[in-house]
Protein backbone atom coordinates (compact mmCIF):
# COMPACT_ATOMS: atom_id res chain seq x y z
CA UNK A 1 0.00 0.00 0.00
CA UNK A 2 1.63 3.30 -1.00
CA UNK A 3 -0.49 5.21 1.44
CA UNK A 4 -1.87 5.11 4.91
CA UNK A 5 -4.58 6.85 6.80
CA UNK A 6 -3.89 8.65 10.02
CA UNK A 7 -6.66 8.99 12.53
CA UNK A 8 -6.34 11.59 15.21
CA UNK A 9 -8.03 11.32 18.58
CA UNK A 10 -10.63 13.73 20.03
CA UNK A 11 -13.12 12.58 17.45
CA UNK A 12 -11.17 14.46 14.80
CA UNK A 13 -10.70 12.33 11.76
CA UNK A 14 -8.60 13.24 8.78
CA UNK A 15 -6.88 11.42 5.97
CA UNK A 16 -3.22 12.02 5.30
CA UNK A 17 -1.58 10.04 2.56
CA UNK A 18 2.11 9.57 2.20
CA UNK A 19 3.44 9.31 -1.34
CA UNK A 20 0.08 9.95 -2.89
CA UNK A 21 0.15 8.65 -6.46
CA UNK A 22 -1.63 10.97 -8.86
CA UNK A 23 -2.23 10.26 -12.55
CA UNK A 24 -2.32 13.49 -14.53
CA UNK A 25 -4.57 13.25 -17.57
CA UNK A 26 -3.36 16.25 -19.53
CA UNK A 27 -6.12 16.45 -22.19
CA UNK A 28 -8.71 16.68 -19.38
CA UNK A 29 -6.68 19.30 -17.53
CA UNK A 30 -6.36 21.34 -20.75
CA UNK A 31 -10.09 21.01 -21.41
CA UNK A 32 -10.80 22.32 -17.88
CA UNK A 33 -8.37 25.20 -18.39
CA UNK A 34 -10.12 26.16 -21.63
CA UNK A 35 -13.40 26.39 -19.75
CA UNK A 36 -12.06 28.75 -17.09
CA UNK A 37 -14.67 31.49 -16.62
CA UNK A 38 -14.12 35.21 -16.81
CA UNK A 39 -15.07 36.74 -13.50
CA UNK A 40 -17.78 39.40 -13.32
CA UNK A 41 -16.76 42.40 -11.22
CA UNK A 42 -18.60 45.09 -9.31
CA UNK A 43 -17.71 47.79 -6.79
CA UNK A 44 -19.57 47.98 -3.48
CA UNK A 45 -19.25 50.71 -0.87
CA UNK A 46 -19.98 50.26 2.84
CA UNK A 47 -23.40 51.16 4.06
CA UNK A 48 -23.33 51.84 7.79
CA UNK A 49 -21.16 52.22 10.79
CA UNK A 50 -22.31 49.62 13.28
CA UNK A 51 -21.55 48.53 16.79
CA UNK A 52 -21.90 44.98 18.07
CA UNK A 53 -24.14 44.52 21.07
CA UNK A 54 -24.68 41.46 23.24
CA UNK A 55 -28.18 40.05 22.80
CA UNK A 56 -29.10 36.69 24.25
CA UNK A 57 -31.84 36.28 21.64
CA UNK A 58 -29.52 36.85 18.67
CA UNK A 59 -27.52 34.17 16.84
CA UNK A 60 -24.31 33.47 18.80
CA UNK A 61 -25.47 36.11 21.32
CA UNK A 62 -24.50 39.13 19.18
CA UNK A 63 -26.28 41.57 16.92
CA UNK A 64 -25.17 44.71 15.12
CA UNK A 65 -26.71 48.12 15.64
CA UNK A 66 -26.39 50.80 12.93
CA UNK A 67 -24.90 54.01 14.34
CA UNK A 68 -24.51 56.19 11.26
CA UNK A 69 -24.12 56.26 7.49
CA UNK A 70 -20.76 55.04 6.18
CA UNK A 71 -20.58 58.10 3.89
CA UNK A 72 -19.70 60.12 7.00
CA UNK A 73 -16.34 58.37 7.16
CA UNK A 74 -14.75 61.41 5.50
CA UNK A 75 -15.43 63.64 8.51
CA UNK A 76 -13.78 61.36 11.07
CA UNK A 77 -10.16 60.78 11.95
CA UNK A 78 -8.55 58.16 14.13
CA UNK A 79 -5.49 57.73 16.34
CA UNK A 80 -3.85 55.00 18.45
CA UNK A 81 -6.39 52.60 19.95
CA UNK A 82 -9.40 53.85 17.97
CA UNK A 83 -11.65 51.39 16.18
CA UNK A 84 -14.83 51.26 14.11
CA UNK A 85 -16.88 48.66 12.24
CA UNK A 86 -18.32 49.07 8.74
CA UNK A 87 -21.31 47.12 7.50
CA UNK A 88 -21.47 46.54 3.73
CA UNK A 89 -25.20 45.80 3.95
CA UNK A 90 -24.96 42.32 2.46
CA UNK A 91 -22.48 39.47 2.02
CA UNK A 92 -19.54 40.33 -0.29
CA UNK A 93 -16.71 38.36 -1.85
CA UNK A 94 -13.87 40.40 -3.26
CA UNK A 95 -10.87 42.63 -2.83
CA UNK A 96 -10.85 45.61 -0.46
CA UNK A 97 -9.32 48.95 -1.40
CA UNK A 98 -9.22 52.28 0.46
CA UNK A 99 -7.62 55.70 0.55
CA UNK A 100 -5.84 56.68 3.77
CA UNK A 101 -4.54 60.17 4.47
CA UNK A 102 -2.67 61.62 7.44
CA UNK A 103 -4.20 64.36 9.57
CA UNK A 104 -1.84 66.67 11.54
CA UNK A 105 1.93 66.65 11.18
CA UNK A 106 3.67 64.73 8.37
CA UNK A 107 3.54 61.03 9.32
CA UNK A 108 6.76 60.43 11.27
CA UNK A 109 6.06 56.71 11.80
CA UNK A 110 4.28 54.03 9.77
CA UNK A 111 0.59 53.45 10.30
CA UNK A 112 -0.15 50.08 11.90
CA UNK A 113 -3.69 49.03 11.06
CA UNK A 114 -5.51 45.82 11.95
CA UNK A 115 -8.48 44.72 9.86
CA UNK A 116 -10.87 41.95 10.82
CA UNK A 117 -13.39 40.60 8.31
CA UNK A 118 -16.57 38.90 9.38
CA UNK A 119 -19.52 37.23 7.72
CA UNK A 120 -21.33 37.33 11.07
CA UNK A 121 -21.49 39.72 14.05
CA UNK A 122 -19.76 37.09 16.24
CA UNK A 123 -16.56 37.56 14.18
CA UNK A 124 -16.63 41.27 15.05
CA UNK A 125 -17.36 40.64 18.73
CA UNK A 126 -15.21 37.73 19.88
CA UNK A 127 -11.41 37.89 19.66
CA UNK A 128 -9.90 35.42 17.21
CA UNK A 129 -7.24 34.66 19.86
CA UNK A 130 -9.99 32.79 21.73
CA UNK A 131 -10.29 30.25 18.87
CA UNK A 132 -9.33 26.77 19.98
CA UNK A 133 -10.70 24.48 17.24
CA UNK A 134 -8.96 21.72 15.30
CA UNK A 135 -8.91 23.23 11.82
CA UNK A 136 -6.41 25.94 11.12
CA UNK A 137 -6.94 29.33 12.75
CA UNK A 138 -5.49 30.80 9.55
CA UNK A 139 -9.00 30.66 8.07
CA UNK A 140 -10.03 33.44 10.44
CA UNK A 141 -10.00 36.51 8.26
CA UNK A 142 -7.73 39.25 9.54
CA UNK A 143 -4.92 41.39 8.28
CA UNK A 144 -2.30 43.47 10.04
CA UNK A 145 -0.78 46.08 7.78
CA UNK A 146 1.97 48.65 8.08
CA UNK A 147 1.68 51.66 5.81
CA UNK A 148 4.94 53.53 5.24
CA UNK A 149 3.76 56.09 2.72
CA UNK A 150 0.78 58.35 3.40
CA UNK A 151 -1.43 59.55 1.84
CA UNK A 152 -1.94 56.50 -0.32
CA UNK A 153 -4.32 53.94 -1.73
CA UNK A 154 -4.21 50.55 -0.05
CA UNK A 155 -5.22 47.47 -2.02
CA UNK A 156 -5.36 44.31 0.04
CA UNK A 157 -3.95 41.36 -1.90
CA UNK A 158 -6.20 38.64 -0.45
CA UNK A 159 -9.80 37.97 -1.42
CA UNK A 160 -12.17 38.22 1.54
CA UNK A 161 -15.67 36.96 2.24
CA UNK A 162 -17.54 39.25 4.59
CA UNK A 163 -20.29 41.67 5.41
CA UNK A 164 -18.45 43.53 8.20
CA UNK A 165 -14.94 44.96 8.52
CA UNK A 166 -13.49 46.05 11.85
CA UNK A 167 -10.78 48.71 11.61
CA UNK A 168 -8.39 49.00 14.56
CA UNK A 169 -5.78 51.72 14.46
CA UNK A 170 -3.02 50.00 16.41
CA UNK A 171 -0.70 52.99 16.15
CA UNK A 172 0.02 56.19 14.26
CA UNK A 173 2.31 58.51 16.27
CA UNK A 174 1.94 61.34 18.75
CA UNK A 175 2.00 63.78 15.82
CA UNK A 176 -0.57 62.49 13.32
CA UNK A 177 -3.89 60.70 12.99
CA UNK A 178 -5.48 59.08 9.92
CA UNK A 179 -8.66 59.51 7.90
CA UNK A 180 -10.23 57.03 5.46
CA UNK A 181 -12.08 57.52 2.19
CA UNK A 182 -13.28 55.51 -0.84
CA UNK A 183 -13.42 52.23 1.03
CA UNK A 184 -14.62 49.68 -1.51
CA UNK A 185 -15.04 45.98 -2.08
CA UNK A 186 -14.30 44.92 -5.67
CA UNK A 187 -16.49 41.86 -5.87
CA UNK A 188 -15.91 38.82 -8.08
CA UNK A 189 -18.15 35.97 -9.22
CA UNK A 190 -18.72 33.75 -12.24
CA UNK A 191 -22.49 33.77 -11.70
CA UNK A 192 -24.21 36.33 -13.91
CA UNK A 193 -27.33 37.44 -12.08
CA UNK A 194 -28.81 38.92 -15.28
CA UNK A 195 -29.43 35.33 -16.36
CA UNK A 196 -31.51 34.42 -13.30
CA UNK A 197 -35.23 34.53 -13.98
CA UNK A 198 -37.34 36.24 -11.30
CA UNK A 199 -39.30 33.76 -9.22
CA UNK A 200 -42.30 35.83 -8.09
CA UNK A 201 -43.58 33.12 -5.77
CA UNK A 202 -46.87 33.80 -4.02
CA UNK A 203 -45.27 32.80 -0.71
CA UNK A 204 -42.99 35.66 0.45
CA UNK A 205 -40.90 33.34 2.66
CA UNK A 206 -40.10 31.05 -0.26
CA UNK A 207 -39.26 34.11 -2.35
CA UNK A 208 -36.83 35.28 0.29
CA UNK A 209 -35.31 31.80 0.73
CA UNK A 210 -34.87 31.61 -3.06
CA UNK A 211 -33.15 35.01 -3.14
CA UNK A 212 -30.71 34.17 -0.37
CA UNK A 213 -29.96 30.76 -1.94
CA UNK A 214 -29.06 32.47 -5.20
CA UNK A 215 -26.81 34.97 -3.44
CA UNK A 216 -25.13 32.05 -1.64
CA UNK A 217 -24.51 30.24 -4.90
CA UNK A 218 -23.32 33.39 -6.65
CA UNK A 219 -20.75 34.18 -3.95
CA UNK A 220 -19.42 30.60 -4.13
CA UNK A 221 -19.11 30.73 -7.94
CA UNK A 222 -15.54 31.73 -8.64
CA UNK A 223 -13.21 30.12 -11.16
CA UNK A 224 -14.54 26.84 -9.80
CA UNK A 225 -17.60 26.11 -7.68
CA UNK A 226 -16.04 26.79 -4.28
CA UNK A 227 -17.57 25.24 -1.17
CA UNK A 228 -17.27 28.47 0.78
CA UNK A 229 -15.49 31.71 -0.12
CA UNK A 230 -14.32 32.07 3.52
CA UNK A 231 -13.48 28.38 4.04
CA UNK A 232 -12.38 25.97 2.44
CA UNK A 233 -12.29 28.08 -0.77
CA UNK A 234 -11.98 24.93 -2.86
CA UNK A 235 -13.83 22.49 -5.03
CA UNK A 236 -15.46 19.67 -3.05
CA UNK A 237 -17.40 16.98 -4.89
CA UNK A 238 -20.38 16.79 -2.54
CA UNK A 239 -20.84 20.53 -2.72
CA UNK A 240 -20.33 20.57 -6.49
CA UNK A 241 -23.17 18.09 -7.03
CA UNK A 242 -25.64 20.37 -5.25
CA UNK A 243 -24.28 23.63 -6.68
CA UNK A 244 -24.61 22.23 -10.18
CA UNK A 245 -28.29 21.46 -9.58
CA UNK A 246 -28.96 24.96 -8.23
CA UNK A 247 -26.95 26.46 -11.10
CA UNK A 248 -29.09 24.75 -13.78
CA UNK A 249 -32.17 26.52 -12.39
CA UNK A 250 -30.49 29.92 -12.01
CA UNK A 251 -27.16 31.10 -13.47
CA UNK A 252 -26.95 28.30 -16.03
CA UNK A 253 -23.17 28.46 -16.14
CA UNK A 254 -23.09 24.90 -17.43
CA UNK A 255 -19.53 25.22 -18.66
CA UNK A 256 -18.46 25.77 -15.07
CA UNK A 257 -19.98 22.40 -14.12
CA UNK A 258 -18.23 20.83 -17.10
CA UNK A 259 -14.94 22.44 -16.09
CA UNK A 260 -15.23 21.07 -12.56
CA UNK A 261 -15.99 17.56 -13.83
CA UNK A 262 -12.90 17.68 -16.05
CA UNK A 263 -10.80 18.97 -13.14
CA UNK A 264 -11.76 15.97 -11.00
CA UNK A 265 -11.26 13.60 -13.93
CA UNK A 266 -7.86 15.19 -14.66
CA UNK A 267 -6.14 14.06 -11.45
CA UNK A 268 -7.37 10.68 -10.15
CA UNK A 269 -5.06 8.52 -8.06
CA UNK A 270 -3.26 5.50 -9.50
CA UNK A 271 -6.37 3.36 -8.86
CA UNK A 272 -8.47 5.79 -10.87
CA UNK A 273 -10.28 7.19 -7.84
CA UNK A 274 -11.29 10.85 -7.89
CA UNK A 275 -10.33 12.93 -4.86
CA UNK A 276 -12.91 14.41 -2.50
CA UNK A 277 -11.64 17.92 -3.21
CA UNK A 278 -9.14 19.77 -5.36
CA UNK A 279 -6.75 22.69 -5.08
CA UNK A 280 -6.61 24.69 -8.28
CA UNK A 281 -3.57 26.90 -7.71
CA UNK A 282 -0.65 27.12 -8.33
CA UNK A 283 -1.59 24.15 -10.48
CA UNK A 284 -4.22 21.47 -10.22
CA UNK A 285 -3.59 19.29 -7.13
CA UNK A 286 -5.96 16.68 -5.67
CA UNK A 287 -6.24 16.71 -1.90
CA UNK A 288 -5.06 13.50 -0.25
CA UNK A 289 -8.59 12.79 0.93
CA UNK A 290 -10.85 10.19 -0.72
CA UNK A 291 -14.42 9.75 0.49
CA UNK A 292 -16.64 6.86 -0.53
CA UNK A 293 -19.80 8.92 -1.08
CA UNK A 294 -18.06 11.89 -2.66
CA UNK A 295 -16.27 9.75 -5.27
CA UNK A 296 -19.62 8.24 -6.22
CA UNK A 297 -21.14 11.70 -6.51
CA UNK A 298 -18.84 12.23 -9.48
CA UNK A 299 -21.06 9.75 -11.35
CA UNK A 300 -24.22 11.48 -10.17
CA UNK A 301 -22.91 14.92 -11.12
CA UNK A 302 -22.05 13.63 -14.59
CA UNK A 303 -25.52 12.03 -14.81
CA UNK A 304 -27.26 15.28 -13.84
CA UNK A 305 -25.05 17.28 -16.23
CA UNK A 306 -25.72 14.95 -19.14
CA UNK A 307 -29.49 14.93 -18.68
CA UNK A 308 -29.54 18.72 -18.33
CA UNK A 309 -27.12 19.70 -21.08
CA UNK A 310 -27.18 16.61 -23.35
CA UNK A 311 -23.45 17.03 -23.92
CA UNK A 312 -22.76 13.62 -25.42
CA UNK A 313 -19.08 14.23 -26.06
CA UNK A 314 -18.39 14.94 -22.39
CA UNK A 315 -20.34 11.88 -21.35
CA UNK A 316 -18.31 9.69 -23.70
CA UNK A 317 -15.02 11.13 -22.44
CA UNK A 318 -15.82 11.01 -18.74
CA UNK A 319 -17.79 7.75 -18.60
CA UNK A 320 -14.72 5.51 -18.05
CA UNK A 321 -13.64 7.47 -14.99
CA UNK A 322 -17.22 7.62 -13.71
CA UNK A 323 -17.60 3.87 -14.13
CA UNK A 324 -14.27 3.34 -12.37
CA UNK A 325 -15.70 5.04 -9.23
CA UNK A 326 -18.35 2.34 -9.10
CA UNK A 327 -15.84 -0.47 -9.57
CA UNK A 328 -13.75 0.91 -6.72
CA UNK A 329 -16.82 1.32 -4.51
CA UNK A 330 -17.85 -2.30 -5.19
CA UNK A 331 -14.48 -3.45 -3.82
CA UNK A 332 -15.61 -2.31 -0.38
CA UNK A 333 -18.51 -4.79 -0.30
CA UNK A 334 -18.09 -7.85 1.90
CA UNK A 335 -19.13 -11.36 0.87
CA UNK A 336 -22.73 -10.51 1.85
CA UNK A 337 -22.73 -7.50 -0.54
CA UNK A 338 -22.80 -5.09 2.39
CA UNK A 339 -20.25 -2.29 2.70
CA UNK A 340 -17.47 -2.92 5.19
CA UNK A 341 -17.75 -0.48 8.03
CA UNK A 342 -14.85 1.22 9.75
CA UNK A 343 -14.44 4.09 12.16
CA UNK A 344 -12.00 6.14 10.12
CA UNK A 345 -13.20 9.00 7.88
CA UNK A 346 -14.07 6.76 4.92
CA UNK A 347 -17.37 8.34 3.88
CA UNK A 348 -18.75 11.79 4.61
CA UNK A 349 -22.60 11.76 4.60
CA UNK A 350 -22.95 14.42 7.37
CA UNK A 351 -21.06 16.01 10.23
CA UNK A 352 -23.06 14.34 13.02
CA UNK A 353 -20.43 13.07 15.47
CA UNK A 354 -22.18 9.79 16.22
CA UNK A 355 -23.40 9.00 12.72
CA UNK A 356 -22.50 5.52 11.45
CA UNK A 357 -21.75 5.75 7.73
CA UNK A 358 -22.37 2.16 6.59
CA UNK A 359 -26.14 2.32 5.94
CA UNK A 360 -26.28 5.70 4.21
CA UNK A 361 -23.21 4.82 2.13
CA UNK A 362 -24.81 1.54 1.02
CA UNK A 363 -27.79 3.62 -0.13
CA UNK A 364 -25.55 6.12 -1.93
CA UNK A 365 -24.02 3.17 -3.78
CA UNK A 366 -27.45 1.93 -4.90
CA UNK A 367 -28.54 5.48 -5.82
CA UNK A 368 -25.40 5.89 -7.92
CA UNK A 369 -25.58 2.53 -9.70
CA UNK A 370 -29.13 3.40 -10.78
CA UNK A 371 -27.86 6.61 -12.35
CA UNK A 372 -24.88 4.85 -13.90
CA UNK A 373 -27.30 2.39 -15.50
CA UNK A 374 -29.10 5.30 -17.18
CA UNK A 375 -25.79 6.57 -18.54
CA UNK A 376 -24.77 3.08 -19.66
CA UNK A 377 -28.06 2.81 -21.57
CA UNK A 378 -27.41 6.10 -23.37
CA UNK A 379 -23.95 4.90 -24.29
CA UNK A 380 -25.06 1.34 -25.12
CA UNK A 381 -22.20 0.36 -22.85
CA UNK A 382 -21.15 -3.26 -22.42
CA UNK A 383 -21.12 -2.58 -18.65
CA UNK A 384 -24.90 -2.34 -18.55
CA UNK A 385 -25.74 -5.95 -17.71
CA UNK A 386 -22.99 -6.12 -15.08
CA UNK A 387 -24.36 -2.99 -13.39
CA UNK A 388 -27.90 -4.36 -13.48
CA UNK A 389 -26.82 -7.64 -11.94
CA UNK A 390 -24.77 -6.00 -9.20
CA UNK A 391 -27.64 -3.63 -8.43
CA UNK A 392 -30.00 -6.54 -7.94
CA UNK A 393 -27.56 -8.37 -5.61
CA UNK A 394 -26.85 -5.28 -3.54
CA UNK A 395 -30.50 -4.31 -3.16
CA UNK A 396 -31.32 -7.90 -2.08
CA UNK A 397 -28.48 -7.89 0.45
CA UNK A 398 -29.62 -4.52 1.78
CA UNK A 399 -33.06 -5.97 2.48
CA UNK A 400 -31.70 -9.05 4.15
CA UNK A 401 -29.06 -7.39 6.30
CA UNK A 402 -30.02 -3.77 6.85
CA UNK A 403 -33.84 -3.65 6.79
CA UNK A 404 -35.56 -4.28 10.14
CA UNK A 405 -39.16 -5.10 9.33
CA UNK A 406 -40.17 -5.06 13.00
CA UNK A 407 -38.84 -1.55 13.48
CA UNK A 408 -39.71 -0.31 10.00
CA UNK A 409 -36.25 1.24 9.62
CA UNK A 410 -32.93 0.52 7.96
CA UNK A 411 -30.00 0.04 10.32
CA UNK A 412 -26.33 0.87 10.03
CA UNK A 413 -23.14 -0.55 11.51
CA UNK A 414 -22.56 -3.20 14.15
CA UNK A 415 -24.61 -1.16 16.64
CA UNK A 416 -27.62 -1.35 14.28
CA UNK A 417 -27.90 2.41 14.39
CA UNK A 418 -31.14 3.96 13.16
CA UNK A 419 -30.31 7.39 11.81
CA UNK A 420 -32.13 9.96 9.74
CA UNK A 421 -29.34 9.92 7.18
CA UNK A 422 -29.69 6.18 6.56
CA UNK A 423 -33.47 6.40 6.04
CA UNK A 424 -33.21 9.46 3.79
CA UNK A 425 -30.58 7.94 1.53
CA UNK A 426 -32.44 4.61 1.40
CA UNK A 427 -35.58 6.48 0.34
CA UNK A 428 -33.67 8.39 -2.33
CA UNK A 429 -32.15 5.12 -3.52
CA UNK A 430 -35.74 3.79 -3.88
CA UNK A 431 -34.92 0.50 -2.27
CA UNK A 432 -38.53 0.10 -1.12
CA UNK A 433 -41.56 0.36 -3.38
CA UNK A 434 -43.20 3.82 -3.59
CA UNK A 435 -45.88 3.09 -0.97
CA UNK A 436 -43.38 1.74 1.58
CA UNK A 437 -41.00 4.56 0.77
CA UNK A 438 -43.72 7.04 1.67
CA UNK A 439 -44.48 5.20 4.92
CA UNK A 440 -40.79 5.21 5.82
CA UNK A 441 -40.67 9.00 5.56
CA UNK A 442 -43.83 9.29 7.68
CA UNK A 443 -42.33 7.00 10.30
CA UNK A 444 -39.11 9.00 10.27
CA UNK A 445 -40.90 12.30 10.90
CA UNK A 446 -43.10 10.73 13.54
CA UNK A 447 -40.54 8.73 15.49
CA UNK A 448 -37.68 11.24 15.10
CA UNK A 449 -34.69 8.89 15.69
CA UNK A 450 -32.00 10.40 17.88
CA UNK A 451 -29.21 10.57 15.28
CA UNK A 452 -30.45 13.57 13.35
CA UNK A 453 -29.08 15.93 10.70
CA UNK A 454 -26.54 18.69 11.23
CA UNK A 455 -25.87 20.28 7.87
CA UNK A 456 -27.88 21.95 5.10
CA UNK A 457 -26.26 19.29 2.91
CA UNK A 458 -28.29 16.52 4.59
CA UNK A 459 -31.36 18.74 4.98
CA UNK A 460 -31.33 19.11 1.20
CA UNK A 461 -31.59 15.35 0.84
CA UNK A 462 -34.35 15.23 3.48
CA UNK A 463 -36.45 17.71 1.51
CA UNK A 464 -35.77 15.90 -1.74
CA UNK A 465 -36.76 12.56 -0.17
CA UNK A 466 -40.08 14.07 0.94
CA UNK A 467 -40.72 15.36 -2.57
CA UNK A 468 -39.85 11.97 -4.02
CA UNK A 469 -42.46 10.21 -1.88
CA UNK A 470 -45.10 12.76 -2.92
CA UNK A 471 -45.14 14.81 0.28
CA UNK A 472 -44.64 18.28 -1.19
CA UNK A 473 -46.37 20.07 1.70
CA UNK A 474 -44.16 18.37 4.23
CA UNK A 475 -41.13 19.20 2.07
CA UNK A 476 -42.09 22.89 2.07
CA UNK A 477 -42.62 22.78 5.84
CA UNK A 478 -39.14 21.34 6.38
CA UNK A 479 -37.60 23.80 3.99
CA UNK A 480 -39.20 26.73 5.78
CA UNK A 481 -38.47 25.34 9.23
CA UNK A 482 -34.78 25.01 8.39
CA UNK A 483 -33.75 27.65 5.85
CA UNK A 484 -36.55 30.00 6.99
CA UNK A 485 -35.25 29.74 10.55
CA UNK A 486 -31.76 30.58 9.32
CA UNK A 487 -33.22 33.70 7.72
CA UNK A 488 -34.83 34.66 11.03
CA UNK A 489 -31.42 34.18 12.63
CA UNK A 490 -29.98 36.76 10.26
CA UNK A 491 -28.61 34.84 7.26
CA UNK A 492 -27.62 37.03 4.28
CA UNK A 493 -26.27 33.89 2.67
CA UNK A 494 -26.96 30.36 3.90
CA UNK A 495 -24.58 28.73 6.35
CA UNK A 496 -22.39 25.66 6.32
CA UNK A 497 -23.74 24.36 9.61
CA UNK A 498 -27.05 24.94 11.26
CA UNK A 499 -28.79 22.91 13.89
CA UNK A 500 -31.99 24.74 14.94
CA UNK A 501 -31.86 22.85 18.26
CA UNK A 502 -28.23 23.63 18.96
CA UNK A 503 -27.35 26.89 17.30
CA UNK A 504 -23.80 26.90 18.65
CA UNK A 505 -22.99 23.71 16.71
CA UNK A 506 -19.63 23.50 14.98
CA UNK A 507 -17.85 20.25 14.10
CA UNK A 508 -14.59 22.21 14.20
CA UNK A 509 -14.70 23.36 17.82
CA UNK A 510 -15.79 26.99 17.33
CA UNK A 511 -18.51 28.90 15.58
CA UNK A 512 -15.88 31.52 14.64
CA UNK A 513 -14.46 29.19 12.01
CA UNK A 514 -17.78 28.04 10.50
CA UNK A 515 -18.47 29.25 6.99
CA UNK A 516 -21.54 31.46 6.68
CA UNK A 517 -21.82 31.40 2.90
CA UNK A 518 -21.66 27.77 1.96
CA UNK A 519 -22.29 26.05 -1.34
CA UNK A 520 -24.16 23.03 -0.08
CA UNK A 521 -26.80 25.22 1.53
CA UNK A 522 -27.77 26.98 -1.71
CA UNK A 523 -30.20 24.30 -2.91
CA UNK A 524 -33.60 25.71 -1.90
CA UNK A 525 -33.60 27.66 -5.17
CA UNK A 526 -33.27 24.33 -6.98
CA UNK A 527 -35.89 22.63 -4.82
CA UNK A 528 -38.39 25.48 -5.21
CA UNK A 529 -37.86 26.06 -8.93
CA UNK A 530 -37.27 22.53 -10.22
CA UNK A 531 -40.09 20.93 -8.24
CA UNK A 532 -42.45 23.93 -8.42
CA UNK A 533 -42.86 24.06 -4.66
C1 LIG B 1 -16.10 20.64 5.03
C2 LIG B 1 -16.65 21.62 4.06
C3 LIG B 1 -16.98 21.09 2.69
C4 LIG B 1 -17.44 19.66 2.76
C5 LIG B 1 -16.51 18.82 3.54
C6 LIG B 1 -16.86 17.36 3.61
O1 LIG B 1 -14.72 20.75 5.08
O2 LIG B 1 -17.76 22.16 4.67
O3 LIG B 1 -17.94 21.89 2.10
O4 LIG B 1 -17.71 19.15 1.50
O5 LIG B 1 -16.49 19.31 4.84
Please describe what this structure looks like.
The protein is an alpha+beta fold and 533 residues long. The protein folds into two domains: 20-39 and 191-530, Glycosyltransferase (Alpha/alpha barrel), CATH 1.50.10.10; 41-189, Sandwich (Jelly Rolls). Helix content is 37%, strand content 18%. The protein contains 14 helices and 14 strands. It has helices spanning 26-34, 121-125, 204-220, 237-249, 254-266, 292-309, 312-330, 358-379, 384-402, 420-428, 434-447, 456-468, 472-488, 524-530; strands spanning 40-44, 48-54, 62-69, 83-104, 111-118, 142-147, 152-155, 160-171, 176-189, 235-236, 277-279, 285-286, 403-404, 409-410. A hairpin with a 5-residue loop joins β11 (277-279) and β12 (285-286). α7 runs antiparallel to α8 (358-379).
Shape: globular
Low-confidence stretches: 6-10
Pattern of helices and strands = HEEEEEHEEEEHEHHEEHHHHEEHHHHH
**How many H/I helices?**
14
CATH topology of the largest domain: Glycosyltransferase
A few lines on this structure:
The chain is an alpha+beta fold and 533 residues long.
List the main descriptive attributes of the protein structure presented here:
533 residues; alpha+beta; Jelly Rolls; 14 helices; 37% helix
Topology, element by element:
Elements: H1 26-34, E1 40-44, E2 48-54, E3 62-69, E4 83-104, E5 111-118, H2 121-125, E6 142-147, E7 152-155, E8 160-171, E9 176-189, H3 204-220, E10 235-236, H4 237-249, H5 254-266, E11 277-279, E12 285-286, H6 292-309, H7 312-330, H8 358-379, H9 384-402, E13 403-404, E14 409-410, H10 420-428, H11 434-447, H12 456-468, H13 472-488, H14 524-530
Helix pairs in contact: 1-5, 3-13, 3-14, 4-5, 4-6, 4-14, 5-6, 5-7, 6-7, 6-8, 7-8, 8-9, 8-10, 10-11, 10-12, 12-13
Amino acid sequence: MPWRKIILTNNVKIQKIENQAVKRIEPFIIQAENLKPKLIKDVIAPYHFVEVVADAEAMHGWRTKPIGPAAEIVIHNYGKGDQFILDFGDHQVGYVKMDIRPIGSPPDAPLHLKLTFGEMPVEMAEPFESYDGWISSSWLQEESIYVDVLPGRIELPRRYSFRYIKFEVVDTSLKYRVAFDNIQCHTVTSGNKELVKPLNHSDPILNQIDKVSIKTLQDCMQDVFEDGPKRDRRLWLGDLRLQALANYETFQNNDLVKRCLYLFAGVPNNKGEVAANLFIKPSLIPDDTYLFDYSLLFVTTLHDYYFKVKDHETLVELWPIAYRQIEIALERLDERNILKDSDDWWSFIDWHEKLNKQGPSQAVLIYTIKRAIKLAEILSSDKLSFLEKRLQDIVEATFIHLWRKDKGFFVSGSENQISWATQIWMVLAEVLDPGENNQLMHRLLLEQPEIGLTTPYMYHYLVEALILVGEKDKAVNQLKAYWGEMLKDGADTFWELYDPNNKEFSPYGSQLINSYCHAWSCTPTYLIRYYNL
